[in-house]
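Hi there. Long-time user, first ticket. I'm pasting a complex I've been working with (about 819 residues overall). I'd like to know whether the download I got is complete or cut off, because the file seemed smaller than I expected. Thanks.
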Amino acid sequence: MQLELSRVVQCTSRLGVLKGLGRTGQRSLEVPGCLLYTHFGTVPHLTQDTLHTMSNLPSVTQVTLSNIAEHQEVLEEFKDGFRKFAGLHDTVLYCSLHDPAMLCPTGYTTNKTVSVWGSGGRMELTVAKFMALQKSVQPDWYQSMADGETWQNSTSRKRVRKSVDRTLAHLDECLLELDGVEVFGVVEGGDILEERVRSARETAKRPVAGFCLDGLQTGSMDQSLRTQLIAAVNKELPEDKPRLLQGVGRPDEVLACIEAGVDLFESFFPFQVTERGCALCFSFDISPDPERQNGDLNHDDQTQMTSFEINLKDRRYQDDFRPLVEGCGCYCCQNHQRAYLHHLLVTNELLAGVLLMIHNTSHYHGFFAALREALAEDKLDLLKRRVLRDGARQTERKEQDG
Amino acid sequence: MAATIECGADTNTSENNMSFKKALSVASSLTLQIVAECPVTKARVCDLILPHCAVNTPVFMPVGTQGTLKGITVDQLEALGCQICLGNTYHLGMRPGPDLIEKASGLHGFMNWKRNLLTDSGGFQMVSLVELSEVTEEGVKFKSPYDGKEILLSPEKSISIQNSLGSDIMMQLDDVVSSTVTGPRVEEAMHRSIRWLDRCIAANKNPHKQNLFAIIQGGLNSELRKACLAEMTKREVPGFAIGGLSGGEEKDDFWRMVTLSTDHLPREKPRYLMGVGYAVDLVVCVALGCDMFDCVFPTRTARFGSALVPWGSLQVKQKQYAKDFQPIDPDCQCPTCKRHSRAYLHALFKSDTAAMHHITIHNIAYQLNLMRSVRQSIVEGRFPEFIQTFMKRMFPSRDQYPSWAVDALASVNVTLE
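Hi, the file is complete. Here it is re-exported in full:
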């Protein structure tokens, strides 16, 4: 893969295209961008018909070893790789270690192993097993095995050091069996600046195609610290290799991290929103429209969309016959109303997940498209204000409601 | 006050009359065109013209209880060729309630389904699901499972809810008694169902857009059935359902009541056998003269990983399929079989709900395809041959054919080889 940057804004935010992806090297992915989050190759709740109601989905599909590890035998017998096994005909395949939407139990990582949790429980992976798995999956690129168990507040400096050392050792072992598949090195270091810098410097010395930034996931630290650490890390990394940030998906955090120089994100956030029965509705439209501005300033109308998401189980939506988001072109908004979604959620119907996942995925990817456009036109600040204002108003309203 | 529902498709051009008529004879918005009749059995092929579109019979109607077919979008359902599906008066009457659905332009508007809908009366759920308080001449009193309040479901109330839902076919409220019950209660229920039918007909505010079907009762008693048939067929209703079967009764009794019923139902009106959906039952009951069927089985069993196939069913979640790289049915053209293997679906059940949706789609496709094949064979005058092939595929050997099916088919001149 090659990263072609078309712009670097204010010395950090990057805009460009990641090219040369896939078997034939013909596929590409615009950055900043996100990967398509899946459970075992399936976007949660969606079959191919419902998935393909959306156009412009990311060309790279993410699968995780936490879903796949228990099926190693099957994949080995199948022989032709995960993409074919799952019926994913036309996608680039990226394999990560953990599912970003699930927090793993800690305390099981050793010098030689990391653990993943599948449907049958914990599975311990050595590098050898990890590489055997990659051989059976046959991804286009994967993240090297890593120890990222540093996100808890109580993590000692010694432990953080170990995670950096182990991760480098795992990477070196993975690289011994390179065989034509691209590997991302993983930058660790917890919340300790020196360790972050050390990890970045060392990883950058290896022949990796790009970098995963681990241990910075939502909930592990303040955004200000995250920004600081990412900026420091990125200084050590070659400009022409992509940086993928793991475990961060909230719109405000994404914005801040792009400003710090991150290129790629995982798109698990729409799934989390879906699972709590909510619909993304924050605005990322910065085209000038005086009428819309006025609408947004109407504090009295409690049904106005001015937050990252709305909770459709709320009784106020019972007889709200508008689409989830006015003007949204997704299948859900073109065909259904909030009242119907409310009913589906109240009655625990499976279709709620399907429709919400379609909308949330669509909305989220629209956000990334808007991000790229804003960067291209030097309007990132404007976009930031738009998106963050919605988030602030939601906090304000929550405080008012008590 | 019922909303006027604009459907757009084939409606009778009679004027909209919103007044409350007590007449027993009403205009309807249903036309049955008999396309072919099997010269050997009692099977027929019809085109049932309903307000939203034509329905080709024999037809299997999937059940979308709460205004949705579990996990499937209306587009997916339409793409499978479904022309009519069910909604449930009891469930929808509770949540979200008839007033909200009326505001949403009826159940069609609420779920955005552009084809036909059939709603049942709520009668069966009352008996099977809830704490039954009391059945009186007035109606059925029961306790709401959501707030414990006592509710009376009367014929008038049931029809009122169904009018709000705006379904193309509505079912009368019948006095439902389990098919395993015997004695005077069965007769009482049969007679009451007739009286309730008359009340339902009188209560229907939309006879020009909504077709009210009668439900023949009488349990497993031939005399009671015949009495019910004699009375109900005197009423001017657009169609008849055969009720009170598909419970826990013996199949030997079941088929005899079905064939007795079709013998005494008018030829030119559709016959709807309620609650029947297993493949063998469908084929046999088509031979016995039924046109329409519904059942939760295919969609419910899908969520447990059971895929329906011409040779029975396939439990995708079982270990033996973990490394089976074929599709569920190599001959099936449904979206699931065209793209995914048993092995992938087996594994997916451990990771995501979409696995259920894949099987649901397949099972609906299976049921609709079965009906399509049955229909085609009748049109081409080879239904008896179809039955032979079907049974051979479904059962490993002749001595495994269910005896009730053998008897039932023999009664309509098909001797299974």
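A couple of notes from our side: The radius of gyration of chain B is 21 Å. Chain B has two domains: 43-294, 296-410.
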